[in-house]
């Protein structure tokens, strides 16, 4: 349901009602599914979380699709308070699902704004940026690789592998060891491969590979070495 009736008059210019800054752009194949992580400050652990949508990017009129820890239709939201994030899963995506979405922590009160992050999702027959699997795993000390596909229009765009939690990124053609694992990115002109070596348990979490402004989320799970 809409948060406010459609007939409510708009008396003043409201920056919260327009598109604003879109922090994430994703593309998903028609009929496919997507899992999106939404991180939040620990002070919002006990607050309600929800996922809402408006095709025209108007937050004021966005429709709440589901609250945390519930499933409605093809949408499921699961909160992970011990890790300060919740995930949103959407299945069987169709063209009409294209539009703006928001991860929201409900603050409450008439004059208090909810904490939110906007992202834009485009459903298309051939996604411009994608991954074969949105979940990869490995043991401590092992290596893991992720292949990130992109369309021809993104061949010359900057390729990166980033961690959602702390917004740290590894860039194509550079090796970085600042996160206790060596990360290398190699590009063959149609896809790029991320290689993480010497995995640590602390490397577990949500990442995304990106080409230009487009992202594809990937969850990495590192388990205790055998």
Core attributes:
4-stranded antiparallel beta sheet, 10-stranded mixed beta sheet, globular, 226 residues, Immunoglobulin-like, 0% helix, mainly beta, disordered N terminus
What CATH architecture of the largest domain would you give? Sandwich
Supply the number of helical segments. Answer: 0
Q: And the CATH topology of the largest domain?
A: Immunoglobulin-like
Overall geometry comes to: globular
Number of strands: 18
Overall structural class, as computed from helix and strand content, comes to mainly beta
Task: Please give a structural write-up.
The protein is mostly beta strands and 226 residues long. Helices cover 0% and strands 48% of the residues. The protein folds into two domains: 15-124, Sandwich (Immunoglobulin-like); 129-223, Immunoglobulin-like (Sandwich). The chain has strands at residues 24-29, 34-39, 49-54, 63-67, 70-72, 75-80, 85-90, 99-105, 115-124, 129-131, 135-139, 144-150, 159-163, 169-171, 182-187, 191-197, 205-211, 214-223. Strands 1, 3, 4, 8, 9, 11, 13, 14, 17 and 18 form a ten-stranded mixed sheet that branches. Residues 1-20 and 175-181 have low confidence and may be disordered.
